[in-house]
Write a structure and sequence with these properties.
- By secondary structure, this protein is mostly helical.
- It is 59% helix and 0% strand.
- It has four helices and no strands.
- Helix 1 runs antiparallel to helix 2.
Length: 93
């Protein structure tokens, strides 16, 4: 289930890039889809009782796959604890 939601977020991120470019013609703000997807991912990580290190690794991979800022690592700060500061440290830049 967690892999599936991560794949959905990555796919949505790519689609959101097109919507960002076509802001004049879109009928929905990409954040209206992104936020519920990321919230579902965060909630699933919490329900599965993943440790902060595993969440950080998954989140790092997800952030690296998403080039249109779909994932806000701050949403996970409570789950990550001390590991929150390392997310995105080795980003695609």
């Amino acid at each position: 289930m967690l892999d599936l939601i991560e794949q959905a977020i990555a796919v949505w991120d790519e689609l959101a890039g097109y919507l960002n470019d076509a802001y004049y013609a879109r009928r929905i703000d990409p954040q209206e889809i992104s936020e519920p997807l990321v919230d579902a991912h965060r909630d699933l990580c919490e329900r599965l009782d993943l440790d902060s290190e595993e969440i950080a690794e998954r989140l790092d991979r997800l952030v690296d796959r998403c080039h249109h800022d779909t994932v806000d690592p701050a949403v996970y700060s409570e789950l990550l604890g001390e590991d929150a500061g390392r997310i995105g440290r080795y980003s695609r830049w």
